[in-house]
Design a protein that fits this description.
about 20% strand; alpha/beta; Rossmann fold; about 280 residues
């Protein structure tokens, strides 16, 4: 079995069993725009991420950026001052509204494309640099997704993912509330192996860091996000908060729930010789 097949099989194992999902009062997969907005607002402060650095060094002055899975723009916002145009792709209109607002505030020309990648790839123009952060774990068929990124990059593709599935830290919660054992794969290692199998000359850099910004003004909203992930009803909020323990905390004035530190993996490759 090659890496692409292993990735698809492992990712499929993350599906929530029907007997749990059918009882969920709300979708466990939705993200509040507030969370992405706060991430984007904090992305330009502090030390630039490895992903931003690798993208910036390939972006010429007045160049163009394509951000796939743009959210509110947290991954690419640090590049906008150097860019003449940024294109954001997202499957949620609410996220694209946040992206447009942030781009207007930054004074950069913005083009928004609503839809899933690579379904909308034919509608999107190429850019000097293509960035894609924290999307791959939502993509079961990895090869067409990545090849479309490659085909749209004149100079470089930069991908950021966590070293393990971004919800792996919740495994103890699934055991506690549903007696459900969650998977441990796929991982960034498998994604890198797949990229190499397809012939991409991939570079990789890992960094262990606190979760990068973002959160909620109200503690109950941070708890509610995790409760929805667990397919539980609102009356279980107190139980969820207790189970989270120290993982529910306030950072820089915002509430969030998750591990204190995470390992981020940046994968990048050049698509053409750069002068």
């Amino acid at each position: 079995m090659n890496a692409s097949e292993r990735w698809a099989l492992a990712l499929a194992s993350w599906a929530i069993p029907d007997e749990i999902l059918s009882r969920a009062p709300e979708s466990p997969w939705t993200f509040p725009p507030e969370l992405f907005r706060s991430r984007a607002e904090r992305a330009t402060t502090g030390q630039p991420s490895t992903t931003t650095v690798r993208a910036a060094e390939a972006l010429p002055a007045g160049g163009t950026v394509l951000d796939v899975g743009v959210g509110a723009g947290a991954t690419s916002v640090s590049l906008w001052a150097r860019a003449s145009r940024v294109t954001g792709v997202d499957s949620a209109e609410a996220m694209l509204e946040e992206f447009r607002r942030a781009a207007a505030a930054a004074g950069v020309e913005a083009v928004a494309a609503l839809g899933r990648w690579p379904d909308v790839a034919a509608e999107v123009v190429a850019a000097d640099v293509v960035v894609c952060a924290h999307v791959l774990y939502n993509v079961q068929e990895l090869e067409p997704f990545v090849r479309a990124l490659h085909e749209h990059a004149r100079r470089r593709v930069v991908i950021e993912i966590t070293s393990t599935h971004p919800l792996a830290w919740m495994s103890d919660l699934w055991l506690r509330f549903h007696d459900l054992q969650r998977p441990t794969e796929p991982t960034a290692d498998v994604a890198e192996e797949a990229l190499r199998e397809w012939g991409f000359d991939v570079e990789r850099e890992d960094v262990t860091t606190p979760p990068r910004g973002g959160g909620f003004e109200r503690r109950e909203d941070a708890v509610g996000l995790i409760r929805r992930r667990l397919c539980l009803t609102p009356d279980r909020d107190d139980e969820v908060a207790e189970a989270l323990g120290d993982r529910l905390a306030k950072h820089e004035g915002l509430w969030s729930a998750g591990p204190e530190r995470q390992r981020l993996v940046t994968l990048w490759w050049d698509t053409a010789a750069r002068t």
